Description:
Its EC number is 1.4.1.1. By secondary structure, this protein is an alpha/beta fold. About 35% of the residues lie in helices and about 15% in strands.
Amino acid sequence: xxxxxxxxxxxxxxxxxxxxxxxxxxxxxxxxxxxxxxxxxxxxxxxxxxxxxxxxxxxxxxxxxxxxxxxxxxxxxxxxxxxxxxxxxxxxxxxxxxxxxxxxxxxxxxxxxxxxxxxxxxxxxxxxxxxxxxxxxxxxxxxxxxxxxxxxxxxxxxxxxxxxxxxxxxxxxxxxxxxxxxxxxxxxxxxxxxxxxxxxxxxxxxxxxxxxxxxxxxxxxxxxxxxxxxxxxxxxxxxxxxxxxxxxxxxxxxxxxxxxxxxxxxxxxxxxxxxxxxxxxxxxxxxxxxxxxxxxxxxxxxxxxxxxxxxxxxxxxxxxxxxxxxxxxxxxxxxxxxxxxxxxxxxxxxxxxxxxxxxxxxxxxxxxxxx
Length: 371
Ligand SMILES: NC(=O)c1ccc[n+]([C@@H]2O[C@H](COP(=O)([O-])OP(=O)(O)OC[C@H]3O[C@@H](n4cnc5c(N)ncnc54)[C@H](O)[C@@H]3O)[C@@H](O)[C@H]2O)c1
């Protein structure tokens, strides 16, 4: 198969969909890989590393789209890319269709086959191509939180791990899923006094088993959150209710109970945030202060660490990309249900029910395209 990897053009997106190592794995299996010049530079992969891996470099984004049977990307296509996508071309990337109607219509019009990273799903309902970004964001939440607790950055001026004779900072994590668990691990490793809250009791049991002694678990409800909020220095929002907006667990009135310089990191901002006063921010201007409380609400946290994020993402996507390249999308999706669930739009038809429902579009069963 001919695989094309364009350079991401979304503002400040430095990740790339394929590493030189990934390109080599595809080339080894007899596929042709075309990389747009400079596509990997933001993640630390220069063109010559791709060439050494057996890929070819193309000078323009147009040339990549023109040549490829399968496009591998990171972010959802944005407007200038809509026209470049060809009929019958397979596009394997994040789409997040339900959150942007114009993209959905553009992909229907393109006649392409759109396989979305975010809906590839395992039998246990986990989302293997979302997990790596949650791992990055969870770990980063503590790194950023620790930084913004510093006084010059408007924080309380408390060191996360304390020092001998001085108590460590108190970290509260709302949600014990992938983001929350990774945040708890980092905070615990830095010596903080950590509490992780969830509504899922089996999950709390599991966390209690695997976490070190400086991590406590606590049932999440309004009463318990109100009790803990005034005494914690760093609060991380890491809640997710599948298919719904995040609930506001920290309400505006709770800010008055917090100490000045408390830091709130709302990782769930991409689902509306679990802190009422959260609004999306960017890496250029990541924080703002309300009632003396510092808010960090960057919607694409992994974008700040493109080297780690690219490797984490491609470790997860490459096995699927190899399967798609080896078998073609139809056979690969027939034989692998995880990939089948990634299909959202096929040649003008919406085949993912939630996307059809979101925009009141006709829904076509995916099986009709697999005959
Ligand atoms: N900002 C970013 O850059 C970024 C990056 C990756 C993920 N995210 C977001 O982070 C959020 C968490 O993702 P995840 O992968 O950890 O999800 P996950 O499904 O693994 O975990 C979510 C957890 O929240 C718990 N939960 C649900 N309701 C709760 C409540 N009322 N109180 C406490 N816990 C509750 C669930 O039981 C679950 O354990 C998502 O919104 C995701 O989109 C953001």
